[in-house]
Specification:
This protein is an alpha/beta fold. About 30% of the residues lie in helices and about 25% in strands. The N and C termini lie far apart (about 25 Å). Strand 4, helix 3 and strand 5 form a beta-alpha-beta unit. It is globular and about 40 Å long. The protein contains three helices and five strands; from the N terminus they run E-H-E-H-E-E-H-E. It has a three-stranded parallel sheet, sandwiched between helices. It has one domain. The mean pLDDT is about 90.
C-alpha cells in the first residue's frame, strides 16, 4: 500500500508522484491522509521542538486503514518530523509498518 503526505503548498506534486510510484511497484495507492491546516515550512524553524510542534495535529486519517505495510511518500524531508508524526498517526489508526520515502532531503542528518 502506498500513501502520500498531502501538501497544501504543492498539492499535485506528491499525489502524482506517489500514484505513479505505486503503479510502477505494483502497489495499491490510497490517499487517506488529509492536511487540515497550513503551517510554516520545517526549514524555517530553529529547533527540533518547534519542528515537531509545527506538524503535530495538522494531519488526519480519513477512512479505515488495513494492517498492511505502507510506503509513505513525501516531497522534501527537512527535519523528518513530518514523516515521524504522520507515520505514528498511521500506526495509531491501524496501519502496518510504515516505510518513509522522500524525493529529497535538505540536510545531511
Amino acid at each position: 500500500m502506498t500513501r502520500r503526505i498531502p501538501s497544501l503548498r504543492r498539492p499535485t506534486l506528491v499525489a502524482s508522484f506517489a500514484a505513479r510510484l505505486a503503479a510502477g511497484l505494483g502497489l495499491r495507492y490510497k490517499p487517506t491522509l488529509q492536511h487540515v491546516k497550513q503551517h510554516p515550512e520545517q526549514a524555517s524553524l530553529r529547533n527540533s521542538f518547534q519542528q515537531v510542534i509545527n506538524v503535530y495535529n495538522v494531519f488526519k486519517v480519513e477512512g479505515e486503514l488495513s494492517s498492511a505495510p505502507v510506503l509513505l511518500v513525501d516531497d522534501i524531508a527537512d527535519s523528518k518530523w513530518t514523516l515521524t508524526v504522520v507515520g505514528a498517526l498511521l500506526r495509531k489508526n491501524g496501519s502496518g509498518l510504515v516505510y518513509p520515502y522522500v524525493l529529497a532531503t535538505t540536510n545531511a542528518d
